[in-house]
Q: What sequence folds into this?
């Protein structure tokens, strides 16, 4: 049995990762601050399914609270840490920038320091496909430079990767960053398109379609994300003996540091996703076509060759299967017909 700290355990990905670890016999300490960025009731409902497990312990704390994080690490011994707590959302970062600094920068510093002093065997942390920012070459590769973020959210995630590398270099702390691509599925986030569209269509309200629908997203089903997270967690990052400072590879290092994409490797036109959702719901959407939002990008597409080579796993859930599973869950959760 491993003892794992999962931060953001009441969040979408955190809940599913915790479930997976508990199901295989690990002990999980789940940390979350239950902030009201979106429905606290949804977070509490997610937690309810975890608290029934004998090997799960919940800690209500904020990453930015250094004393609380230090106490958590003093009270418990962890084999690995999976840091999924963060202030998420590109659009929210345009109006609430300080929330991203508090959680994603100060909070992540507290996690790094705690992992360093506790000599944690592996820190796995959530990055984001948003770090690719202004890059246009696709599919997005972890071996490309990502120096042109187009939102503060993306900049904080890029900063996390740089901070992690520093701790891997200075203190030999094994760290692995995971760039998630448009995650969706049961228990998902209410601020994301899949939930927003489903809710609006069932309520007879128009959906907001940005960039006139000319968007492509590498929609990645939650089960595929979780499988990737757990497989990566089980193999701590190691130094790349071939790393060369004259031609530095951004995805590896002479330190125990790695970065991977986790995406479906099959970008989908936004209008196609909407069509699949309409077919699954048996209802047509009224569409309000809008321009591109500041901080957004027209397309995402993950190169997952490194993930597949190192873990033997490649995400493969189709948008049709994923949307059906999400809609089945959504109807059940809300009692919708």
A:
């Amino acid at each position: 049995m491993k003892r794992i700290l999962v931060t953001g355990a009441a969040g979408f990905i955190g809940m599913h990762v915790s479930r997976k670890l508990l199901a295989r016999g690990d002990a999980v300490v789940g940390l979350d601050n239950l902030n009201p960025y979106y429905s606290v009731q949804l977070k509490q409902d997610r937690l309810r399914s975890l608290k029934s497990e004998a090997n799960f312990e919940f800690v209500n704390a904020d990453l930015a609270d250094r004393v609380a994080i230090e106490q958590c690490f003093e009270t418990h011994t962890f084999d690995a840490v999976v840091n999924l707590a963060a202030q998420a959302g590109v659009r929210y970062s345009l109006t609430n920038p300080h929330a991203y600094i508090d959680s994603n920068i100060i909070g992540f510093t507290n996690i790094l320091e705690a992992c360093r002093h506790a000599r944690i065997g592996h820190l796995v942390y959530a990055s984001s496909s948003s770090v690719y920012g202004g890059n246009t070459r696709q599919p997005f590769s972890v071996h490309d430079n990502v120096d042109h973020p187009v939102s503060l959210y993306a900049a904080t995630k890029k900063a996390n990767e740089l901070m992690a590398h520093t701790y891997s270099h200075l203190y030999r702390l094994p760290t692995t960053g995971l760039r998630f691509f448009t995650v969706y599925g049961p228990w998902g986030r209410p601020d994301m398109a899949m939930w927003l569209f489903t809710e609006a269509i069932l309520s007879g309200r128009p959906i907001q379609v940005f960039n006139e629908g000319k968007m492509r997203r590498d929609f990645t089903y939650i089960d595929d994300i979780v499988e990737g997270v757990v497989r990566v967690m089980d193999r701590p990052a190691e130094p790349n003996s071939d790393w060369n400072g004259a031609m530095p590879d951004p995805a590896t290092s002479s330190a125990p540091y790695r970065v991977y994409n986790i995406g479906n490797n099959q970008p989908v036109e936004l209008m196609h996703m909407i069509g699949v959702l309409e077919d699954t719901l048996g209802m047509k959407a009224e569409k309000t076509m809008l321009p591109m939002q500041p901080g957004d990008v027209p397309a995402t597409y993950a190169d997952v060759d490194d993930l597949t080579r190192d873990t033997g796993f490649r995400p493969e859930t189709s948008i049709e299967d994923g949307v059906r599973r999400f809609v089945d869950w959504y109807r059940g959760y809300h009692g919708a017909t």
Summary: The chain has eleven helices and 13 strands. The first strand starts at residue 3 and ends at 7.
